[in-house]
UniProtKB/TrEMBL annotation:
Signal peptide: none
Pfam families listed in its UniProt record: SET
Source organism (scientific name): Paenibacillus darwinianus
Keyword Methyltransferase listed: yes
This protein's name: Lysine methyltransferase
GO biological process: methylation
Keywords in alphabetical order: Methyltransferase, Transferase
Domain called SET: residue spans: 1-111
Statement: the UniProt record of this protein carries the keyword Transferase: yes
Top-rank taxon: Bacteria
Length: 128
């Protein structure tokens, strides 16, 4: 259903993104990405590494690293996919927010809410 290809949207070193290999209907589960949670007080060690850019809040007391294709979804303020934290399964579940055509890049809003247009944390660093 999905594959990794070169993305025109990613400006990182790897320029990867997640793309649909077939049409995906609105509401359809796209991917269940496993997470590695760790207590917030351990994050100071992660902050000293490149992994800090890939860690996210995972409940009130934990931070987590996302595995699978999870960290390869690129950001858009007009996403075609959403994600939900699944604490029971220790996954982040990605769903189609709109119908997605085969070949389209699958995009999420990194802010968590589809319509949230707040500046992204990694862009805020550049303006300080």
């Amino acid at each position: 259903m999905i594959e990794i290809k070169t993305s025109k949207l990613s400006d990182g070193e790897f320029n990867r993104g997640v793309f649909a290999t077939r049409n995906i209907a609105k509401g359809e589960l796209i991917h269940e990405a496993p997470v590695i949670p760790y207590p917030n007080e351990e994050h100071e060690f992660i902050e000293k590494t490149l992994l800090a850019d890939y860690a996210f809040e995972y409940g009130a007391n934990h931070t987590a690293l996302l595995l699978g294709y999870g960290m390869l979804f690129n950001h858009s303020y007009q996403p075609n996919a959403i994600y939900e934290l699944n604490f029971d399964n220790h996954t982040v579940d990605f769903y189609a927010h709109t119908d997605i055509n085969a070949g389209d890049e699958i995009l999420i809003n990194y802010n968590g809410e589809v319509d949230c247009d707040d500046p992204l944390w990694f862009n805020e660093k550049d303006t300080k």
